[in-house]
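Lab channel / #folding
Pinned by the channel admin:
"Please post every new chain as: sequence first, then the structure tokens as a reply. Keep commentary short and put observations after the output so the thread stays searchable."

First post following the new format, from NK:
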Amino acid sequence: MLEKKIGELEQERQDMIKMMEAKGKADIQKHVDLKVDRQKIQDDHSSERRVSEAQIAKLQMHIEKLDEEREESIQKAASMEMEMTQLQEAIGKLQDERIDMKQQREEKMTKLQENMDTLREERDAMESK
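Reply from TO:
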């Protein structure tokens, strides 16, 4: 009977050892799986970060290009504004010259009219003598 009890205990011990080994193997496999998952997450994160950094760099280059285009536009606008000012000044001068020429023409016409009137008066005076 004692041997039977020892045999049962030995069997129980063997079963416990097998169960503990199986549990140990399962824990080891779980640990390995967790490590693999962790590495995969880190790799994905690194990949996403590289993609994000590349996108940021691309956006920064685009922003720099837009800044350059904006600066060029500002310079063009300033140049156009200066040209517009020069054109307005030229138009003003031309208008002044036109007014002066009109006044000179009117003065000449008045003088011609006066001369014609004088000549008529002289002719009339000569004819009446």
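NK: The chain has a mean pLDDT of 92.
TO: also worth noting, The radius of gyration is 54 Å.
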